[in-house]
Structures are given as structure tokens and as C-alpha cells.
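Final report, results section. Input specification for complex C-07:
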Amino acid sequence: MVDTQAAATSTDSAVVANPGGPQARPSMVWDAWGSPAGHKPLSEQIRGLLTQVFGVSGEPVARRDEGDVPLPASALTAEHRAGLAALVGAERVSTDHRDRLLRSGGKSTPDLLRRRSEGPQDAPDAVVFPGDHAQVAALLEYCSAAGIAVVPFGGGTSVVGGLDPARGGFDTVIALDLNRLDALTEVDPISGTATLGAGLSGPQAEELLARQGLSIGHFPQSFEYATIGGFAATRSSGQASAGYGRFDDMIQRLTIATPAGTLELGRAPASAAGPDLRELFSGSEGTLGIITAVTLRVHPVPEATGYQAWSFPDFATGATALRTVIQAGAAPTVMRLSDEAETGLNLARAGDIGGAAVGGCLAVTTFEGTAAHVAARSAEATALLTAAGGTALGETPAREWEHGRFAAPYLRDSLLDVGVLCETLETATTWANLANLKAKVTAALTDSLTAQGTPALVMCHISHTYPTGASLYFTIVGKQAEDPIAQWAIAKRAAGDAIVAAGGTITHHHAVGADHRPWMTDEIGDLGVRVLRAVKQAVDPAGILNPGKLIP
Amino acid sequence: MVDTQAAATSTDSAVVANPGGPQARPSMVWDAWGSPAGHKPLSEQIRGLLTQVFGVSGEPVARRDEGDVPLPASALTAEHRAGLAALVGAERVSTDHRDRLLRSGGKSTPDLLRRRSEGPQDAPDAVVFPGDHAQVAALLEYCSAAGIAVVPFGGGTSVVGGLDPARGGFDTVIALDLNRLDALTEVDPISGTATLGAGLSGPQAEELLARQGLSIGHFPQSFEYATIGGFAATRSSGQASAGYGRFDDMIQRLTIATPAGTLELGRAPASAAGPDLRELFSGSEGTLGIITAVTLRVHPVPEATGYQAWSFPDFATGATALRTVIQAGAAPTVMRLSDEAETGLNLARAGDIGGAAVGGCLAVTTFEGTAAHVAARSAEATALLTAAGGTALGETPAREWEHGRFAAPYLRDSLLDVGVLCETLETATTWANLANLKAKVTAALTDSLTAQGTPALVMCHISHTYPTGASLYFTIVGKQAEDPIAQWAIAKRAAGDAIVAAGGTITHHHAVGADHRPWMTDEIGDLGVRVLRAVKQAVDPAGILNPGKLIP
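Structure output:
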């Protein structure tokens, strides 16, 4: 079913057409995370555990070939196709089955369960591949006038329904694929800034910068596929956020196309010239505009990295220890802590998941910079962590964590294949409220899944620390019920309600999308929602941008 | 002319009525900076210099008694007075001459020159003193319905016309004085956060927190008078910003009253729940709402402070050295560098201004934390600054700078008194563009003042550093022309145009107010301005909030 002409518009060929650009990125499988090369079959150890705990057989169920998946006929009219083609070229407007299927949504567990289920899948009516900012701007102007909904598409890694091809009352929805915006257009090594196209994936951006001896240092779990534009549009936060900051902290300048025109925001490292409008478009998730280029703070590739793992007798002790380090300004690059359940399953050690149970709570720290800088920071942190009750475990568990840190989503696929439910969710709160929030969310997940007859393991870690608080990242593993999408919806609702009731934010780094939208009013209040709607009215008066996401 | 009943509504008495609150703050003089106790008469040294360089006599001109200043009659109608009194009590609605005069604007040099000139002064028609958030919210609702313009008033320290009692087309304008909102309502020592009333001045906030062993660490030059609400509303940046961040970095939560309702923003230390709306109200300068309480990141009062001053052969060498330190993450608390002109006049050393000229460029660093933390950071910075061409000068000049760091505005008054023009302005840019921006702004100021027949000294320092760039703070001293307000307006216009042309931000920490508003479109573009207007329409549909400021 692959149309040769349309195939020429796909991401890979676009990258090849740009010889000075980055290496091509692998495509993700339509119904799973990542490329087939990353597939992680379940170890004997994990299979045994699944049989023992959940009574599942461990035998993968059959999955569909992408060509066999029925999609609704494209609603793109000939007139609109011609209109779009006039802006970007006919070969950049695709209604090809595979192009549409690969942009049919993100990679949440419900997304993947839906793709593994029988029946038709929703998909955008067409995929359009603009080549530069001017084309994105022209497309938005055209779609606004024509009444065509637009879903910006970067790496396709949303786990919150942020890429659902919702029409929002329009007849037609297109995916606006940004992957041709893959240039490193400006590097300022003195100031430590670089301007990157929105469509560059994490590895592509790091590859281009490494040629100049520079690095962003943004390594979320989605790193291998997610894009610069997506990081900005969702307020992404990487595993090295303690050292290099959240992605929003790194943003110096944003170039944004909207139906109402173009914005260039950010004239200096810091400013008192009114509200910081960059912060209005960071996290706007494609609902207020399409970010086409981002100028980021970058740094030299670090000379040295110090690794140190720690064990704490319990989560509370470990959390207090991490707090002490971050509040003292000891400046780790990575600092994370698994709770007893996650440590017991070795979930932070990809090579030994489900292996012999380990007691206590595992923490990982890394420090980057010059050798002297690493030594000084590491010494300060070591003194603080030891005084706070930590036992140093040496480098190995920290290196193991780093080695396997992008593997978890592949493991999820293998679990879904054998009838196990596996999903994650996350929040953040103050240090003082952390234990309360963790207990309430754990109880909500445990109770709601147990009440459905499918008791589950609920594990948690701290992966992002701030002087005033930290994130909590939950992993939930249990047996799939007959309707696992409905099963998870109940648990997710319970967890979201618990987060709001316990004073957490509804998302620390996964963003809002469609899935967290029911709680946005709890997060920012009625008036906050009205403010967002007013901004949307100003930049997207027709309401074409990513309908059904973020703004209630 | 002081009305006894109205006097009971003044800031000082309100503070006295709150025995658990902070000590009363001194009032500022109506036509100068600060209280009379802070007056800094000119030294013989400075007088000599002024005579020699500018040919001014050094003899102060007479100033008017505040009771003698004609103000326009209050336009507040009896109906509106009753309406306001119903919300806050009759004794909290003042049309007293002194209350109005003290809230007639801010403390820019043109403000002070205007007050020193003959003729009537503009002033708000009344001053209203709400006691809590609910009263502020009720006042805004009332004023919105009644068509009364509202200028929020905290410390009165604006140097950009942010407090001008502009009517914006309404018949009446009131100053909404926030100084009764002076409570420390919540302290969370575990998370390191504190919730402070918007009306607390810098010293009052530090006093209340010091009782708990805590500190904010925000020390702008306006520290002695400016308020928590004002810091937030103007994106203030303190001298210790390298260590503790800008004020906007410290904000965890904002409570904001608007004519359309109340906003509570900030549920966690960090979040991906859409745009960060705190960043829309930080820097909103009273045009989008009135900030009534701020939850801030705070830290323990530091155990130790290390001081070190440095000399660099020239500004470029010094700037590179500072860049090296901040990019390495060596984490100074304060780090600043005076250029050759400022160093030559000893302007960073309050006790010796105008003394024997010093060559090169003076830099000051401080480090705070535990003794071990200070020692480690200081050692790293010392190595970097030495390698970059710095010569250590010991502690004394750094301590002298700290001792005199709030004195400059008092000195300005003494200069204005003797016919000398003295004003400051500031910007920021990337490290790579710093020398270019400094040269362009210096040339614009020098040329425009020389062309008016009043050549001036233009001095500059870096006071805020970031990994990607730094601020530039200019001090201009020259002889006043016959019409010094017009003289400065020409120079200011030239400097602002030069900043925009050279790629700087129109203000790094003084904010926009009325004075920088002509360049807001250059800063954020037409569409950015339309976004701000859309937000204003949502929260302030009648347009009563601080007319004529920020939004073009």
C-alpha cells in the first residue's frame, strides 16, 4: 500500500535530501515504541516473574501488519490538496496509508493498546512536510482560512494524547510533520548558544553540536525520537536536569509560526521587558503556534563524568539526602532515587530487571565538567549523602542505569505483548509534601486496580530535584483486564484526582495533551483557562491548532 | 495640610497596627530617594571634581516643602469615595495632600527633576489602603465597574515611570497602596519556601524570615524600599542574582487579584502543565492584575561569606574572565565588573568616589554557603579568574562595595541638587554581543549629550551574569542643561534606539513602565503586543489597571 511518490516525502528521504544535515533517524514502529532494532524481548527472569505474580503466560500475542490496518478514507478535498501543494510542492502533501498511520497518535499505553486492538484506527487525512519556517507560516495561514485542523508532528513520542488527530469540528485534519526543519543554523560558542530546527531529534541535535564540541545535555527517556520543537512545546525535562536544567530553562529564543503571524521571542539571556512570552509558548503543545526553531543554551562536551551509586535504608531517608544535596548547591548533573519497590525489582538496572531482589533504595548520581569541577562537587555530595545515611555502592550501578536509560519503553512493548499492563505517570511537589503525595497516588493506583480484580505493582522514583521539591515518577505493572484501555482509564482517573487532591502538579514533564486536560482547571483555575483561551483567540482565531489538547 | 484622619491610614500606622508583623519602614522623601536619614552630602572630593569637570558650583539649590506643592484637586466623587469606603473602611480612603503627593510617581531622574521644578505636580485622586487580598479583589471589581483607573503602589521605587498616575481616559485614578499586606503567612523550612505579603519591603521581608533563620537573598539597589509585590511585578534582579537567581526564578506561587477574578498560579517547583502563567504575571507591572502574595524559594541564612576583589587590565579581559566563571558553574553569589571609567572614579566604592584614580577594571566576587562550600567555589573561581588575567586585590574592596551598595541613589539626589544630571539605564545581551552593545550605547549617550553642549561621563558595569550573557548597567553624569528633563529625554531616546539596534533587551531589571514602552514592539513584535492586549482584555476588560504602562 506504499505509494512511491508519497514515500519520497517521508522523513528519511527528506533528511537524505539535506547532505549537510544530521544522519537520518530511524522511524518508530506504528504500534510500539521505537524502531525494531531496539526491541527488548523479555528475559527468562522477567517471564518467570510475570507468571508467578500475575499468572500471565509470557507468550506474545500476534500483532497486525501496518498495511492491514484499516484507516478511514482521507477527507482531504482535491481543492485543499491543491492549496497545500501550492505552498510546499505536491510531493510534500501525502495521503499515503503509511504516512498517515505513522502519525495517527503518540505512544501512551492506551495508544499502543488501541493499535493492538482490532478495528479501524483514526489518522490524519494527510501529512504535510514543510521545509522551512515560511512554509509552516504559509500552511497555517491557509489552513486557518480553509478551516483545516493542524496537528504539529515531531518525534511522535507523546504519551498524553498530544498527537491525537482530532478534528475539533472541522472536516479535515492534517499532520504537519516538522522533520525537514533539521538544520543547525547558528552556533555561538562564546555565548554557548545554538539555534536548532524544530524537527531535529535528540540524537540528531547532539550529533550536529558534537561536531562543534558542544552538547545540549537534554536526555529525557524519549531522547532517541523526540524533537527539539517537541521538547520546547511540552516543557520536557531530561534526566540531567539537575545539571543542565529543564528544557524550558535552556531556551533563549523561540521562533513560532501562528495563523496570526510570526513571533520571535527572547532578546537576551534575561530581561525585565514585561511578561516572558517564551514561557507562554513553551508548553503550548501546538495549540498556540508551531515552534519552528529554538535557540538553546549549550555547553562544551564535558571533559569528565563522575558516577556514584548509593543505597539508602528507605525512601524517606533517601529523599531527605537528595534534598540536602540540591539545597546545598552541590550541583549534581543527574540525581535520582528509586523507592523500595522499584529497587527490589532492579528496575533502574536494565540488565538485571526482575533479578535477585535488592533491599533498600538505590540512588544514582553523576557529575560532569572538568575533572577538578567533578571532583569538588562529587566530594561535597558524597559528604552530604553519607551524613544523610547513604552507603556508597561504587560506579557500576550508576553506569548500568545510564547504559539502559532509554530502554524502558521497549520493555513496555514486550510486556503489553504478553498481556501485562504497563504504564507510567508523573507529578511533582514540594519536599515537605513529597511523602504524602507519593502515598496518595500509590494508594489511588493500587486501590483502583485491585478493585478491578487486577492488583498491580506500583513503583516510584525521584528523577528531577529542585531546591524546593522534586518529581515523582510512577511505574505501574499488572495483568491486563479484558478491556485494558478501560481498566487503565479508571486507574488514571483515580491517580489524577489523587494528585490534584494532594497538591501535586498534574504533570511534571509528560505535558497535558488530551489525557491531562480534564485536570487543567484544577491546575490553573477558571481564570487561568480563560487567559489561555484569550491568547489562543489572538493567535489562532479559527481554532485550527491541535484541537482537543491542553486548553479545556 | 496633613489631615489627621487620613494620616492614620498611612503605611507606618498600618504596620504599627500589626504587632506580629515587621518593623515599620521609613517613608521616602517626596522629591528624592529614600528617607532623610540616608542623605549623602557630596564630599569635598566630589565637589572639587564637579567644579573641575563640569564647572558646576557644588552649591545645592533650594527645594520645596511638600506642603507647598500645588496638586490638582482630587476628582474622586463623593459617590466613589463612599463606594471605596464601603469595601475598606472610610479611614482607608485618603485624599490627603501628603498621601497623594507621596504616591505621585516613582524615582527616575526625570521624576525627581519634575518634582524639583516649579508648578503643579500630578497625583492620584485618592490613595486606598486595602488590608488583604479580598479587599484588593473587591476594589478592582468596584473600580472596573465604576471606571476608576488603578495604579498599584508598593515601595514607590520605579525608575521607569511605572507609577505615573495616568488616568487612561477615565476621570479618576487611585493609588492602591499595598503596604498593609505585610504578613509572612507561611514558612516551609523543609522545602525552603515562604509566602510573603506583597507589601513587605526588602528589609521587612528579610527581618521576618531572619527570625526563622531564613533569607531570600534578593538585594537590588532598591532593596531598602521596594516591595515583594513590586519585585515580582517588575522581574527584579538583585545583586546576588548569580547565587540566588533573579526574583522571577525564586517565585514558586503567585496570588493575583484581577478585575475578572483571582488567580493562584504555581502548584509545584516545576511543571509541564502548559504555559507557565506565573511568567505572564511576573513582569506584568500592574497592568494585568495586582500580585497580593508571593511564595518564594528561600534559603538558610548563609553560614559563611567569602569576599574577593579583582583587578583586570581592561573590560574585555574582565568580561571574559567572568564568563569563564559562570559558564564553568563555579557558582559565585555576587559577581560584577566595573569598566575603566567606573573604576577610575571609584564608583563601586562608596567611601572613595572621586578619590585618586585607579587603573584597570575592578571586579567583585562573593560566595555564600557553608564554609566548605564557600572554600570550594572560591578556589575554583580564583583559579579561573587568575588564569583569565585577573589580579586578586583581597577582601577590602569587595567589602567596601557591599557596605555602600545601596548608597548610589542618595548620591544622585545630591548631584541633582547642585545642577548635575545623573541617571542610569541598563540592558543585557549575549557574551558575544556584549562589547558591541556597550560601545553602541556608550556612543549614543556620549554623542547625544555632547551634541547638546553637555558632554558627560558614561560609565558601565556588569552586575548580572548568566551562562549565555550578561547585563550592562550604565551610569551617566554630566552638567544639567537649562531643561534637564528634555536634555535627558533626548539622550534616553538615543540610548534606547541604540540598544534595540544592537540587539540588546530594552531592560534587564528596571522594567518597562511608561518610559520603555515606546520600544516594547521592538522587543516582542506586533503579535507579541497583540497577545498581551488579549490577555489584558481577559483579565481587565475595562482597562483600569495601570494605564499607559508596559503595553503599547
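Residues 1-19 of chain B have pLDDT under 50 and may be disordered. Chain B touches chain A through 98 residues (CB under 8 Å). This concludes the modelling results for the funded period.
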